[in-house]
Amino acid sequence: MSLQRTNKRQRYRRKRIAVVLVIAVIAASWAAGFVFFVRAVSIIADPANAETQAIVVLTGGSLRLEAGLSLLRAGEGKKLFVSGVHRGVDVAELLRVSRQSPKALDCCIVLGYAADNTRGNARETAQWMKGEKYTSMRLVTANYHMPRSLLEFRTAMPYVAIVPHPVFPSHVKLDAWWTWPGTAALLASEYNKYLLAWTRTIWQSIHNLIAARTS
After folding, report:
1. Angle CA 63–68–74, to nearest 5
2. Is residue 121 exposed (0-12), middle (13-18) or buried (19+ Cβ within 10 Å)?
3. Which CATH class is domain 54-167?
4. Is the Cα dihedral 103, 166, 145, 175 positive or negative?
5. Alpha-carbon distance 171 to 193, whole Å?
6. pTM summary value
Protein backbone atom coordinates (compact mmCIF):
# COMPACT_ATOMS: atom_id res chain seq x y z
CA MET A 1 0.00 0.00 0.00
CA SER A 2 2.84 2.38 0.86
CA LEU A 3 4.55 1.64 -2.47
CA GLN A 4 1.38 2.41 -4.39
CA ARG A 5 1.02 5.73 -2.59
CA THR A 6 4.64 6.57 -3.31
CA ASN A 7 4.22 5.78 -7.02
CA LYS A 8 1.02 7.80 -7.14
CA ARG A 9 2.74 10.79 -5.55
CA GLN A 10 5.64 10.51 -7.99
CA ARG A 11 3.29 10.42 -10.99
CA TYR A 12 1.40 13.42 -9.64
CA ARG A 13 4.66 15.27 -9.09
CA ARG A 14 5.86 14.50 -12.63
CA LYS A 15 2.57 15.72 -14.10
CA ARG A 16 2.76 18.91 -12.06
CA ILE A 17 6.33 19.54 -13.21
CA ALA A 18 5.29 18.90 -16.82
CA VAL A 19 2.42 21.39 -16.53
CA VAL A 20 4.72 24.01 -15.01
CA LEU A 21 7.26 23.50 -17.81
CA VAL A 22 4.59 23.83 -20.49
CA ILE A 23 3.29 27.03 -18.92
CA ALA A 24 6.84 28.38 -18.65
CA VAL A 25 7.56 27.61 -22.33
CA ILE A 26 4.29 29.26 -23.41
CA ALA A 27 4.99 32.33 -21.27
CA ALA A 28 8.57 32.63 -22.57
CA SER A 29 7.39 32.26 -26.17
CA TRP A 30 4.69 34.90 -25.64
CA ALA A 31 7.19 37.31 -24.07
CA ALA A 32 9.74 36.83 -26.86
CA GLY A 33 7.07 37.33 -29.51
CA PHE A 34 5.79 40.41 -27.70
CA VAL A 35 9.25 42.00 -27.77
CA PHE A 36 9.48 41.43 -31.53
CA PHE A 37 5.94 42.79 -31.95
CA VAL A 38 6.76 46.02 -30.12
CA ARG A 39 9.92 46.39 -32.20
CA ALA A 40 7.90 45.91 -35.40
CA VAL A 41 5.44 48.58 -34.27
CA SER A 42 8.34 50.96 -33.61
CA ILE A 43 10.03 50.60 -37.01
CA ILE A 44 7.05 50.43 -39.41
CA ALA A 45 7.41 53.24 -41.94
CA ASP A 46 5.89 54.33 -45.23
CA PRO A 47 8.34 53.38 -48.04
CA ALA A 48 9.50 56.47 -49.88
CA ASN A 49 8.33 56.98 -53.47
CA ALA A 50 5.88 54.06 -53.39
CA GLU A 51 3.11 54.76 -55.89
CA THR A 52 -0.42 53.67 -54.98
CA GLN A 53 -3.82 53.96 -56.59
CA ALA A 54 -5.89 54.20 -53.42
CA ILE A 55 -5.62 55.44 -49.86
CA VAL A 56 -7.49 53.51 -47.17
CA VAL A 57 -8.10 54.90 -43.70
CA LEU A 58 -9.36 52.79 -40.81
CA THR A 59 -11.50 54.85 -38.47
CA GLY A 60 -10.46 55.09 -34.85
CA GLY A 61 -8.70 58.42 -34.45
CA SER A 62 -8.55 61.90 -35.97
CA LEU A 63 -4.87 61.52 -36.86
CA ARG A 64 -5.73 58.71 -39.27
CA LEU A 65 -8.23 60.77 -41.26
CA GLU A 66 -5.96 63.81 -41.28
CA ALA A 67 -3.10 61.68 -42.62
CA GLY A 68 -5.36 60.18 -45.29
CA LEU A 69 -6.56 63.60 -46.42
CA SER A 70 -2.98 64.87 -46.58
CA LEU A 71 -2.00 61.90 -48.75
CA LEU A 72 -4.98 62.54 -51.03
CA ARG A 73 -4.06 66.22 -51.41
CA ALA A 74 -0.48 65.19 -52.20
CA GLY A 75 -1.70 62.93 -55.02
CA GLU A 76 -0.64 59.68 -53.34
CA GLY A 77 -3.87 58.03 -54.49
CA LYS A 78 -6.78 58.61 -56.85
CA LYS A 79 -9.39 58.07 -54.15
CA LEU A 80 -9.60 57.88 -50.37
CA PHE A 81 -11.67 55.09 -48.85
CA VAL A 82 -12.63 55.42 -45.18
CA SER A 83 -13.61 52.06 -43.71
CA GLY A 84 -15.69 51.53 -40.59
CA VAL A 85 -17.57 54.83 -40.58
CA HIS A 86 -20.50 55.14 -38.17
CA ARG A 87 -23.94 55.32 -39.73
CA GLY A 88 -25.11 58.89 -40.28
CA VAL A 89 -21.61 60.31 -40.80
CA ASP A 90 -21.02 61.74 -44.26
CA VAL A 91 -18.04 63.20 -46.11
CA ALA A 92 -18.87 66.81 -45.25
CA GLU A 93 -18.98 66.00 -41.53
CA LEU A 94 -15.68 64.13 -41.66
CA LEU A 95 -14.05 67.00 -43.50
CA ARG A 96 -15.48 69.53 -41.05
CA VAL A 97 -14.12 67.55 -38.10
CA SER A 98 -10.73 67.40 -39.82
CA ARG A 99 -10.86 71.13 -40.66
CA GLN A 100 -10.46 70.59 -44.41
CA SER A 101 -12.17 72.24 -47.37
CA PRO A 102 -15.12 70.05 -48.48
CA LYS A 103 -15.13 71.42 -52.04
CA ALA A 104 -11.53 70.43 -52.67
CA LEU A 105 -11.69 66.78 -51.67
CA ASP A 106 -15.22 65.41 -51.27
CA CYS A 107 -15.33 64.25 -54.92
CA CYS A 108 -12.62 61.69 -54.24
CA ILE A 109 -13.67 60.32 -50.83
CA VAL A 110 -15.74 57.18 -50.37
CA LEU A 111 -17.13 56.03 -47.03
CA GLY A 112 -17.62 52.42 -45.96
CA TYR A 113 -20.24 51.69 -43.31
CA ALA A 114 -20.21 47.87 -43.19
CA ALA A 115 -17.16 47.15 -41.02
CA ASP A 116 -17.09 47.06 -37.23
CA ASN A 117 -13.68 45.41 -36.69
CA THR A 118 -10.34 45.01 -38.45
CA ARG A 119 -11.32 41.84 -40.28
CA GLY A 120 -14.47 43.61 -41.45
CA ASN A 121 -12.35 46.56 -42.61
CA ALA A 122 -10.30 44.19 -44.76
CA ARG A 123 -13.34 42.55 -46.33
CA GLU A 124 -15.10 45.84 -46.94
CA THR A 125 -12.01 47.35 -48.51
CA ALA A 126 -11.36 44.26 -50.65
CA GLN A 127 -14.83 44.59 -52.13
CA TRP A 128 -14.33 48.29 -52.84
CA MET A 129 -10.86 47.76 -54.33
CA LYS A 130 -12.21 45.05 -56.62
CA GLY A 131 -15.01 47.33 -57.79
CA GLU A 132 -12.53 50.11 -58.56
CA LYS A 133 -10.10 47.64 -60.19
CA TYR A 134 -7.28 48.96 -58.01
CA THR A 135 -4.23 46.80 -57.32
CA SER A 136 -2.29 49.01 -54.89
CA MET A 137 -3.14 51.01 -51.79
CA ARG A 138 -1.77 52.90 -48.83
CA LEU A 139 -3.12 51.69 -45.51
CA VAL A 140 -3.49 54.36 -42.84
CA THR A 141 -3.98 53.34 -39.22
CA ALA A 142 -2.24 53.69 -35.85
CA ASN A 143 1.26 52.23 -35.57
CA TYR A 144 0.27 49.73 -32.86
CA HIS A 145 -2.66 48.56 -35.02
CA MET A 146 -0.65 48.22 -38.24
CA PRO A 147 0.73 44.63 -37.85
CA ARG A 148 -2.73 43.13 -37.38
CA SER A 149 -4.21 45.33 -40.09
CA LEU A 150 -1.55 44.25 -42.59
CA LEU A 151 -2.17 40.60 -41.71
CA GLU A 152 -5.93 40.91 -42.23
CA PHE A 153 -5.66 43.02 -45.38
CA ARG A 154 -3.02 40.86 -47.06
CA THR A 155 -5.11 37.79 -46.29
CA ALA A 156 -8.23 39.38 -47.79
CA MET A 157 -6.36 40.90 -50.75
CA PRO A 158 -3.33 38.78 -51.71
CA TYR A 159 -3.42 40.35 -55.18
CA VAL A 160 -3.06 43.94 -53.88
CA ALA A 161 0.20 45.72 -53.07
CA ILE A 162 -0.28 47.28 -49.62
CA VAL A 163 1.94 50.09 -48.41
CA PRO A 164 1.74 50.81 -44.65
CA HIS A 165 1.34 54.44 -43.59
CA PRO A 166 1.25 54.46 -39.78
CA VAL A 167 0.24 57.41 -37.65
CA PHE A 168 1.66 57.88 -34.17
CA PRO A 169 -0.91 58.72 -31.46
CA SER A 170 0.59 60.85 -28.70
CA HIS A 171 -0.87 58.64 -25.96
CA VAL A 172 1.12 55.61 -27.16
CA LYS A 173 4.59 56.02 -25.61
CA LEU A 174 6.85 53.57 -27.44
CA ASP A 175 10.03 54.95 -25.87
CA ALA A 176 10.43 53.04 -22.60
CA TRP A 177 6.91 51.69 -23.08
CA TRP A 178 7.28 49.41 -20.05
CA THR A 179 7.23 52.47 -17.79
CA TRP A 180 3.85 53.55 -19.18
CA PRO A 181 1.09 51.20 -17.87
CA GLY A 182 -1.47 52.44 -20.41
CA THR A 183 0.84 51.86 -23.37
CA ALA A 184 2.01 48.49 -22.07
CA ALA A 185 -1.59 47.30 -21.63
CA LEU A 186 -2.57 48.57 -25.10
CA LEU A 187 0.40 46.85 -26.77
CA ALA A 188 -0.22 43.58 -24.92
CA SER A 189 -3.89 43.64 -25.89
CA GLU A 190 -3.08 44.34 -29.52
CA TYR A 191 -0.43 41.61 -29.54
CA ASN A 192 -2.96 39.08 -28.25
CA LYS A 193 -5.41 40.13 -30.97
CA TYR A 194 -2.65 39.75 -33.54
CA LEU A 195 -1.91 36.21 -32.31
CA LEU A 196 -5.59 35.30 -32.55
CA ALA A 197 -5.80 36.71 -36.10
CA TRP A 198 -2.60 34.90 -37.08
CA THR A 199 -3.86 31.59 -35.64
CA ARG A 200 -7.17 31.96 -37.46
CA THR A 201 -5.36 32.74 -40.72
CA ILE A 202 -3.09 29.69 -40.41
CA TRP A 203 -6.02 27.43 -39.54
CA GLN A 204 -8.02 28.74 -42.51
CA SER A 205 -5.06 28.14 -44.84
CA ILE A 206 -4.72 24.56 -43.61
CA HIS A 207 -8.47 24.00 -43.95
CA ASN A 208 -8.45 25.37 -47.51
CA LEU A 209 -5.48 23.17 -48.43
CA ILE A 210 -7.18 20.04 -47.09
CA ALA A 211 -10.42 20.94 -48.83
CA ALA A 212 -8.59 21.48 -52.12
CA ARG A 213 -6.87 18.09 -51.90
CA THR A 214 -10.03 16.21 -51.04
CA SER A 215 -12.25 17.88 -53.64
Report:
1. 125
2. buried
3. alpha beta
4. negative
5. 20
6. 0.85
Distance CA 57, CA 112 (A): 10
Backbone phi, psi, residue 173, to 5°: -95, 90
| Closest alpha carbon to 64 in 120, 118, 122, 141 | 141
pLDDT tens for residues 78-130? Answer: 999 999 988 777 766 777 766 666 666 667 889 999 999 999 999 999 999 99
Enumerate the domain spans of the chain.
1-43, 54-167, 173-215
Q: CA-CA distance, 207 to 197, in Å (whole number)? A: 15
Q: What whole-number distance in Å separates Cα of residue 214 and Cα of residue 151?
A: 27
Q: What is the mean pLDDT of residues 116-145?
A: 96
Q: Are 141 and 60 in contact, with CB atoms under 8 Å apart?
A: yes
166 forms beta bridges with 141
Q: Among 51, 11, 67, 30, which residue's Cα sits nearest to residue 162?
A: 51
